[in-house]
C-alpha cells in the first residue's frame, strides 16, 4: 500500500467530518455536499502539495472553506427547512426523548445557521472540530485574536438565542 | 500591554460574556499584536456550556450515510458522465512532453491527476493508478501503467474463460471477450464491463509479468449503453479494438488452450 493510497483512505475517512464542517459553513446539506465534492477533487488533484507530518484534516478544511468563499454566490442557499432533522439516524427507540432532543437540536442549528459566515467558520473548527484557537487560526489564515473575538461574539449570540428558548439554564 | 487586561476580562472575552464591543475589539487587536498576551489568553480557554449542544446538534451529519459521489470524488472513481477515450500511448507521449518541467512544478502534478481522473471516469471501473505514473521523479519505469485495483476484476481476468458473464459486485457485470498473446509474449485479455448504471466500457489488459498483475493497455466507453451483454464484436470501443489489432500476435485462445495459458500467464 503506497503513501498516496494511504492518504486517499484518510481522505475517505475524513468525509463525515468534512460534511459537518461544510454544513456549518453553507447552512444546508445540498451546498455542503457540493463543497465537499469539489474539495475532495481539489485535494486529490493537489495531493502532492500536502506536507506529510502536517494535519491532513486542517489542509482539507482549508480547501473546503476557500472553495466555499469563491463559490458561494452560485450556491443554492436552500434554507427554510432543517435538513439534518431529516437524517434517518435521529429516529430512536424512545420517541418522546428523540422528539425533544430533536427540537433542541433544531433550535441550536437554527442559531448556528443565523450566525455571520465568519463566525460559523470558527464555530465549526473550535467547537465542533475541537481545534485550539491556534490551530483554527492557522487553518483559517487569521490572527489568533481575531479567531478569539469571532468565537466570542458567536458564543454570545448563540447563548442569547439558546437561552431564550430554555435549553441553557 | 498584557498587563492592561485582567484574567477575568480575558476569560470573559473567550466565553463571549463581554458586552462592551469596544473592549472586545481592543482585546482582539492587543492579542494579535502580542504573542505573550495570546498565550496567556489561550491558557484561559475553557469549555462553554453551549459547546455540547452545538456538538449534539450537528452529530447526525457524522453518522449519516456518505453519498456515493463523495466517496467517488476521494477515490477518483467518478460517475462516468463524460465519454472520453485516452490511450496509454497518449499519456506516455504527454508525459514525455512534460518531462522538462521541474519535478516540483505543481502544474505538472495537476495535469497528471486530471488526466488520470478522466481516464478512470472513462473506464467506469475501480482502477487505481500505479505509483510510478504519478511520481514526478524521472526514475519512473517505462512500464508504468494503470493497475487494476478491483479484486473481483483481477479474479475475472485471472480465471474466467472467455464468454462467461461474471458478477463484479459494485462494478456491475463483466465478461472477457478475447484472450491472446501479444508480440512480447504477454497474455492479454479484452473485456467489457457493464456498470450497475448501464454504461458499458471496454478494456484491454495484459499480464505485467513478475507478479505485477494486470495492466490496462487501452479502454474506452461505448457511445450508448446497451441493454445486455454481447459477445465480442464491432461495437466495442474503437480505442480498444485498435489496441487489440495492434498487439495481437496469436490466434484467440479458447477452451482448454485458454485455461492452460491462464494458468501460466
From TrEMBL, chain B:
The keyword Membrane applies. Keywords: Membrane, Transmembrane. It comes from the Bacteria. This is Transmembrane anti-sigma factor. The lineage of its organism: Bacteria, Pseudomonadati, Pseudomonadota, Alphaproteobacteria, Sphingomonadales.
Amino acid at each position: 500500500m503506497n503513501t498516496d493510497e494511504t492518504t486517499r483512505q484518510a481522505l475517505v475517512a475524513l468525509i463525515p467530518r468534512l460534511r459537518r464542517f461544510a454544513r456549518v459553513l453553507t447552512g444546508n446539506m445540498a451546498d455542503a455536499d457540493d463543497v465537499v465534492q469539489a474539495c475532495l477533487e481539489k485535494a486529490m488533484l493537489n495531493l502532492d502539495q500536502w506536507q506529510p507530518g502536517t494535519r491532513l484534516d486542517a489542509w482539507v478544511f482549508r480547501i473546503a472553506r476557500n472553495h466555499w468563499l469563491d463559490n458561494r454566490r452560485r450556491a443554492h442557499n436552500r434554507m427554510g427547512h432543517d435538513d439534518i432533522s431529516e437524517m434517518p439516524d435521529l429516529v430512536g427507540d424512545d420517541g418522546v426523548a428523540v422528539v425533544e432532543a430533536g427540537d433542541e437540536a433544531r433550535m441550536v442549528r437554527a442559531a448556528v445557521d443565523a450566525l455571520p459566515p465568519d463566525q460559523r467558520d470558527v464555530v465549526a473548527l473550535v467547537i465542533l472540530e475541537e481545534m485550539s484557537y491556534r490551530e483554527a487560526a492557522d487553518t483559517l489564515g487569521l490572527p489568533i485574536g481575531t479567531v478569539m473575538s469571532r468565537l466570542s461574539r458567536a458564543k454570545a449570540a448563540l447563548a442569547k438565542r439558546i437561552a431564550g428558548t430554555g435549553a441553557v439554564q | 500591554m498584557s498587563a492592561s487586561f485582567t484574567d477575568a476580562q480575558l476569560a470573559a472575552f473567550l466565553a463571549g460574556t463581554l458586552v462592551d464591543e469596544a473592549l472586545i475589539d481592543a482585546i482582539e487587536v492587543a492579542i494579535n499584536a502580542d504573542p505573550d498576551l495570546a498565550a496567556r489568553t489561550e491558557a484561559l480557554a475553557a469549555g462553554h456550556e453551549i459547546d455540547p449542544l452545538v456538538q449534539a446538534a450537528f452529530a447526525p451529519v457524522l453518522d449519516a450515510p456518505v453519498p456515493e459521489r463523495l466517496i467517488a470524488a476521494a477515490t477518483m472513481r467518478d460517475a462516468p458522465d463524460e465519454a472520453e477515450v485516452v490511450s496509454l500511448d497518449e499519456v506516455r507521449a504527454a508525459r514525455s512532453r512534460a518531462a522538462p518541467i521541474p519535478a516540483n512544478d505543481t502544474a505538472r502534478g495537476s495535469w497528471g491527476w486530471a488526466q488520470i481522473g478522466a481516464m478512470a471516469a472513462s473506464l467506469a471501473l475501480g482502477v487505481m493508478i500505479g505509483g510510478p505514473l504519478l511520481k514526478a521523479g524521472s526514475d519512473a519505469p517505462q512500464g508504468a501503467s494503470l493497475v487494476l485495483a478491483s479484486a473481483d476484476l483481477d479474479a475475472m481476468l485471472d480465471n474466467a474463460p472467455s464468454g462467461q458473464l461474471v458478477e463484479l459486485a459494485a462494478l456491475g457485470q463483466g465478461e472477457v471477450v478475447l484472450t491472446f498473446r501479444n508480440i512480447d509474449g504477454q497474455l492479454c485479455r479484452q473485456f467489457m464491463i457493464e456498470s450497475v448504471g448501464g454504461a458499458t466500457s471496454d478494456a484491454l489488459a495484459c499480464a505485467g509479468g513478475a507478479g505485477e498483475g494486470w495492466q490496462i493497455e487501452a479502454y474506452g466507453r461505448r457511445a450508448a449503453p446497451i441493454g445486455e451483454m454481447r459477445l465480442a464484436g464491432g461495437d466495442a470501443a474503437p480505442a480498444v479494438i485498435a489496441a487489440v489489432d495492434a498487439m495481437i500476435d496469436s490466434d484467440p485462445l479458447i477452451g482448454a488452450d485458454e485455461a492452460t495459458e491462464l494458468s501460466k500467464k
